[in-house]
Amino acid sequence: MKAKYIVGGIIIVVFAVWGITNLMSTTISYVTISEAPRSPGTIQVMGEVDFETVHYDVENSQMSFVITDPEDETGMIRLKIVYSGTVPGNFEQATSVVVKGQYRDNAFMADQLLVKCPSKYQGLEEEA
Asked: What is the CATH number of the domain that holds 40?
């Protein structure tokens, strides 16, 4: 009877460790633009798009642009983004974007691009 409790306890501990390990490997943390170059692994960064820097390379299906820190009044905190994927239809109206990916080769290589667009929510304040 005692052996059943020991085996059951070991099984519970193994599954708990496995679950925690999987959870930790799937969490993606938000970092600031200035922290991105020093952050290993996959991270998320939010910033305002500098539309003067947007360039789409048709040959490689790759878009590059620069984001700035919305809380930096000088506009000096900047991060170059390289994104390979489908450009969201409302990218031109974006007030800010969230990019998910990794920093390497002096640029942030984005796997995902999420657009935050205010036009979706403009009428909500007036109705409330």
From this structure: 2.40.50.140
